[in-house]
Amino acid sequence: MSSPSTSSFIREFLILVGAFQRNSLVSTLAALGMILGVAYSLWLYNRAVFGNLKPDFLHKFFDPNGIEVSIFIPFLVGGTTVH
């Protein structure tokens, strides 16, 4: 999520300006996607941080079992290697 006065906003704005010069329809759709992404991020942040999240579904989830852990460990090991 990029908001005005941050470096990520400036980068995204410059990318959209350059894309608009080539194809205005694609850049307009990209800008709309960016705006919807920011709106969703703020909505999710509000629900998660300020307690508006309804955890009724949490009783369906369980701690990972041995098979799930053995599947996940290679991802952890592979993600920590330096290339």
From TrEMBL:
Any single GO BP term: ATP synthesis coupled electron transport
Transmembrane annotation, as ranges: 25-45
Entry GO MF terms: NADH dehydrogenase (ubiquinone) activity
Enzyme Commission designation: 7.1.1.2
EC class: translocase
Alphabetically ordered keywords of this record: Membrane, Transmembrane, Transmembrane helix, Ubiquinone
Name used for this protein in its record: NADH-ubiquinone oxidoreductase chain 4
Taxonomy of the source species: Eukaryota, Viridiplantae, Streptophyta, Embryophyta, Tracheophyta
